[in-house]
């Protein structure tokens, strides 16, 4: 599923499996719950939370029915919230870079510092600047991953995938799919040009536009998650630029030829956060749900959710993942990857327009 | 029993004016629900959309000041204007191909298939309609892909040495559209063909026309309403479609609905999306004006 932030701040991907398509098609997904649950909890989430394997243990343990609605973008989430009554929603999952936006709208409640073992979060994804305001925590990072390069290791030289210049090289002309999301893709191009994602400015746009055009010239298609994944899985393309573990990890069992890596120049990192709605009338239960999601067991289930796989934020989740799951997630490479990757660009409204114009121009070329 | 006297049963005669008023009120009563529905769900939203198209989005905010910025930007930015050009090109190609394929199919069903089997033949012809539009589009993607049925067959037969590039481009979009619209056009043309009296053909033969002349001078003109109705529907549905080019086109070129979606989904630029939608509606209006001329053809 894709999370799109209106207002040009951010957006997120996903639907990394065919199953995700059907999940996304159903706007509200209710996991089976105890037949006579005494309470209900309403959560506005990304599609990975709709996996019954994730939610059922919490429901049974707490005699509660969790009503889940997955959405496709921060803008969509805000629209749903605007149309709801205060208190309708108890839990919110949101793009990490959009937490401050939700805090600014007074949507999220403060999470007491001692209620979550934040020390267990990978330091690089704690994202205090995003999840906290004035020293108070309003959300916690629950899952993260990378927009980088996925490929078929039986058809390309894995060594080539270590260099971002392959994106505009002729070597794999016509065998590359570009993930259709301008922010991480422009971030990747920037990294290929030696620019940090946080430092991208108007002055960089001409060079970025030039490289985007070069990328388009050697690519076969620019496509959304499902089409990209299908193209890679069926051999239509051999490389997916912008992909990552969230594209290939869930397929690791049936498509062991698919792999992903973080190039030497780095890649773009995404993260999703979870928080309690300020207007919720079930603050304790909502916090309990967040605590469950953040527990090592919950984190392992979330990381390997049927919708898409990605790294859990809690380091202790590794104790509950199998070796095969860890291998697919590149658990042992995380220290290196976290050092080499940078968060999405967070452009101003004006720069965001220019980035989108550059991306649209690229597609029309 | 004595029959009632006329004076006892007949109501006083209504004046012509009163009768007309009553009829008029009745007519309005019948029309009112549809009229209100149209006003509430078409006219008012359309006027709102037209007004919004004259606003603009600046620095992340919608500015409610009247201007033509969005329309100027449409003509100034190649990526936007090209969306309309792509839409028109694809739509025209699809419409022409669909008519050329659907007409013979409809004719065969109407003229060559026995009456008792025509219903079955029609069902077979429109069977793909029963599949989800999205699923059908993704299926085409697999069929047309490098390792798909078509390329594998051609390569197995030795007809090509390298897979044909027929997926994720305009060719794929056109194939997906034509597959869908041939079914639609077959229905409209078939409905027209079966209404034709066999006497037309007999009269033409009596006058010495051969089969081709009969078709060209008699059958084809008489089936133009069916063709044009189907062609117009094809044009409208095709030019406004987002799913097929999004799935099959590989984003190697964008059509206008895709660009509208970009304005809505990524930029929250509702004024620009409204302006582009108005332009799309104008294209449809022009198509209607062109087709309406043909639709006026009366049967002899």
Description:
Chain A has 365 residues and is α/β, with parallel strands linked by helices. Chain A folds into 2 domains: 208 residues, Periplasmic binding protein-like II (D-Maltodextrin-Binding Protein, domain 2, 3-Layer(aba) Sandwich), CATH 3.40.190.10; 146 residues, D-Maltodextrin-Binding Protein, domain 2 (3-Layer(aba) Sandwich), CATH 3.40.190.10. In chain A, the strands form 3 sheets. In chain A, strands 3, 4, 5, 6, 9, 10, 11, 12, 13, 14, 15 and 16 form a 12-stranded mixed sheet that branches. In chain A, a hairpin with a 2-residue loop joins strand 7 and strand 8. In chain A, helix 7 packs parallel to helix 14. Chain B is mostly helical and 300 residues long. Chain B has a single domain, classed as MetI-like fold. In chain B, strands 1-2 form a two-stranded antiparallel ribbon. In chain B, helix 4 packs across helix 10, helix 9 packs antiparallel against helix 10 and helix 10 packs antiparallel against helix 13. Chain B is flat. Classes of the chains: A alpha/beta (365), B mainly alpha (300). At the A-B interface, strand 11, helix 8 and helix 14 of A face helix 4, helix 6 and helix 12 of B.
